[in-house]
Design brief:
Elements: E1 3-9, E2 24-25, E3 28-29, H1 30-34, H2 36-40, E4 46-51, H3 53-64, E5 72-76, H4 81-89, E6 98-101, H5 111-120, E7 126-132, E8 137-141, E9 144-149, E10 155-164, H6 165-178, H7 185-190, E11 196-200, H8 211-224
Parallel strand pairs: 1-4, 1-6, 4-5, 7-11
Antiparallel strand pairs: 2-3, 6-10, 7-10, 8-9
Length: 227
C-alpha cells in the first residue's frame, strides 16, 4: 500500500519558550533528525513536512537538498496541531491509502516502530504506538483528588499513528465542523466509532515538550550513540 508520512512541525513551543522543532539537535534542526527513519524506511513512499508559514522558505533549500528518491513536500501549518495535520492531509497525493502521522518533536522514532504500526493496520481502522503507565494515575478537580484510575487500563499514546486516509479525513473534517479539538488524531476517529488498535511503543520515543525534556533527550541521544 502507498503510505505518506505527515510530520507536523508547526508548533509555537509555548511551554518550551520557543520552537522546539527547529532548535538544533545533533547539528541539524530537530525536525530533520526526526524524519530520517521515514526517509530510510522502505515502507514509506512520500513525506509531507508541515512547518510554520514563516519557516517554509527558511528551510526549503535545506529540505530540497536531502538526498532521497522520495517526494518531500513542504506545507504551511495552521493555528493548531489539528489544523496543521489537516493542511498536510489535503496535500496528500491521491494514490496514498495510508497516512502515518508523527510528531516532529519525537526524534527517537526508528524504522522498527514504523514497521510495527504498518504490520498491525490490517486488523483496525488505525494503529498507534502506546506504552503502559507505570505511575498511579489520579483524576483531579482543582486541588482535590476525585479517584484513582485503574493503572492496568491506562496506556500512554505515542506516535507514529497510522490511519486509512478516508476515515482520517472524515474524523478531522467532523472535528473542524463541530469545533472539537483532539489531543491526537486517534481520539478524533475513536469518537465517531472507528476501531483503533495499538502496538507497544518505546520508552525512548519521548515527546520533547519542556526544557527538561530537551535535557532528557540529549541524554537519550548520548546513550543510544554510545557504542
Amino acid at each position: 500500500m502507498n503510505i505518506t508520512a505527515i510530520i507536523p512541525s508547526a508548533g509555537s513551543g509555548t511551554r518550551f519558550g520557543g520552537k522546539k522543532q527547529t532548535k538544533i539537535f545533533d547539528n541539524r534542526p530537530l525536525f530533520l533528525v526526526t524524519i530520517k527513519p521515514f526517509l530510510e524506511s522502505e515502507l514509506i513512499n512520500s513525506i509531507i513536512i508541515v512547518l510554520m508559514e514563516e519557516d517554509c522558505d527558511r528551510y526549503r533549500s535545506e529540505i530540497e537538498s536531502i538526498n532521497s528518491s522520495k517526494p518531500i513536500t513542504i506545507v504551511a501549518g495552521g493555528k493548531t496541531r489539528q489544523e496543521s495535520v489537516y493542511n498536510g492531509l489535503i496535500s496528500v497525493d491521491k494514490s496514498s491509502e495510508l497516512i502515518c502521522i508523527h510528531d516532529a518533536v519525537r526524534p527517537f522514532v526508528n524504522k522498527k516502530l514504523i514497521q510495527k504500526t504498518i504490520e498491525a493496520i490490517d486488523k483496525h481502522d488505525g494503529v498507534i504506538l502506546a506504552l503502559p503507565s507505570t505511575d498511579t494515575i489520579k483524576e483531579v478537580v482543582a486541588d482535590q483528588i476525585i479517584k484513582t484510575l485503574p493503572r492496568e487500563q491506562i496506556w500512554r499514546a505515542q506516535t507514529p499513528q497510522l490511519f486509512f486516509k478516508d476515515p482520517l479525513i472524515e474524523g478531522l473534517e467532523l472535528a473542524i465542523k463541530e469545533n472539537i479539538h483532539g489531543t491526537d488524531e486517534a481520539s478524533l476517529l475513536e469518537r465517531i466509532g472507528y476501531q483503533i488498535g495499538f502496538v507497544k511503543g518505546s520508552p525512548f520515543n519521548i515527546k520533547i515538550t519542556t526544557k527538561e525534556d530537551w535535557t532528557f533527550a540529549e541524554s537519550i541521544f548520548t546513550f543510544l550513540n554510545n557504542d
